[in-house]
Amino acid sequence: MTVSVTGATGFIGRRLVRRLQADNHQVHVLTRSISKAKLIFPDNGFPGIVIAEEPEWKDCIQGSTAVVNLAGLSISTRWSPEIKKEIKQSRIRVTSKVVDLINESPEEVRPSVLVSATAVGYYGTSETKVFDEDSPAGNDYLAEVCREWEATALRVNKDVRLARIRIGVVLGKDGGALAKMIPIFMMFAGGPLGSGQQWFSWIHLEDIVNLIYEALTNPSYQGVINGTAPNPVRLAEMCEHLGNVLGRPSWLPVPDFALKAVLGEGASVVLEGQRVMPARAKELGFPFKYRYVKDALKAILS
Ligand code: NDP
Questions:
Q1: How far apart are CA 284 and CA 286, in angstroms?
Q2: 1 vs 40, 115, 134, 163, CA distance in Å?
Q3: Residues with CB under 6 A from ligand 1
Q4: What residue owns the CA closest to ligand 1's atom 9?
Q5: How far apart are CA 94 and CA 73, in angstroms?
Q6: Ligand 1, pocket-test mutation among 14, 18, 32, most atoms within 8 A of CB
Q7: Could you give the dihedral angle defined by the CA atoms of residues 76, 127, 296 and 188, in that order, rounded to the nearest 10 degrees?
Q8: Alpha carbon 212 to chain centroid distance?
Q9: Average model confidence (pLDDT) across the chain
Q10: Predicted local confidence at residue 225, as pLDDT
Q11: Mean pLDDT of all residues in 216-234
Q12: How far is the CA of 251 from the centre of ligand 1 (A)?
């Protein structure tokens, strides 16, 4: 198949592109910057890949079997009012563009599948509730971003199979939350972050890439699918395992202010959490490779 991917140059996208290429699929990287994308996907390592800026996205999408939509400004940063606006607008802008291009495609060249990222932030935060795909949206800022992001994807032509993947905190070596958390964690000898009681709904990078891949190829993957591992943990437990893998004692709590100093308001993603279960992925029989955070961390860090 031929797959167009927005956000292909990011943490998840890079791994997805590699996975698609390994299985001999054609990939179209839809980016804002060809020069940046070429550094990530050099010709010698990624033969045959097509890299396109707008307005060439149109031709790429029209020649594709499927589209994966991952683009958006990273939320792991200090949040100023301008950044908050761009966190939301970047997602809505790119999703809107992709949906319009799909909808405007003549039927014979229209992609038949759209896999669009969203996040577990959709549910809001809670130390006590358990969320699955049927749970209502929360009321905070990230819930609002996810709601509008998903609503934009839902505008896609009804003949296109749409899978909205509500992604949890993705754990992997070269990016994402873990890369930001480890230095702070190491500085404070490695105890829990904040109170430690908040839930941490995580997924290993390999599993989220496999879930997206499955959604591209399996017609049963439709609607909302939580992209989280089957065993979310409280942050204190996650930090204990992290301490063990990194060989750090985990008795001294990392104070909230240290995280906030690095992440600003974006620290709320780690300091307030949600317990999200992958009910739909389980129903679909998705074969998670990493079910326990201890195994995921060991595989990533040791
Ligand atoms: P990254 O931040 O690593 O990459 C996102 C990509 O989006 C970038 O490579 C870039 O591609 C594009 N992008 C960045 N800023 C903007 C902008 N202002 N306007 C338009 N495009 C922009 O993201 P991840 O790979 O970590 O995540 C992929 C998606 O999954 C994101 O939408 C994220 O919100 C969501 N998600 C990720 C989680 C995680 O733990 N990683 C958790 C929950 C959801 P380019 O420069 O090539 O255009």
A1: 6
A2: 22, 14, 32, 17
A3: 7, 9-13, 31-33, 36-37, 70-74, 86, 90, 94, 117, 119, 167, 169-170, 175-177
A4: 10
A5: 11
A6: 32
A7: 60
A8: 10
A9: 93
A10: 99
A11: 98
A12: 34
Q: Which residue has the tokens 């939580």?
A: 226
Query: For residue 86, which amino acid is it?
Result: E
- Ligand 1 pocket test, pick from 11, 68, 165 with the greatest ligand atom count within 8 Å of Cβ, gives 11
Predicted local distance difference test score (pLDDT) of residue 189 = 63
Show the beta-strand stretches assigned E in the chain: 2-6, 26-30, 50-52, 66-69, 113-119, 130-131, 161-167, 169-171, 199-200, 202-204, 223-227, 233-234, 275-276
Contact between 120 and 147 (Cβ < 8 Å): no
Question: Does ipTM come in above 0.95?
Answer: yes
Give the start-end residues of each E strand in 143-287: 161-167, 169-171, 199-200, 202-204, 223-227, 233-234, 275-276
Q: Which amino acid, 235?
A: L
Q: Are 97 and 54 in contact (CB under 8 A)?
A: yes
Decide: 277 and 132 in contact? Cβ < 8 Å. yes
Identify the burial level of 108 via C-beta atoms within 10 angstroms of its C-beta, where 0-12 means exposed, 13-18 middle and 19 or more buried: exposed
- Report residue 227 CA to chain centroid gap: 8
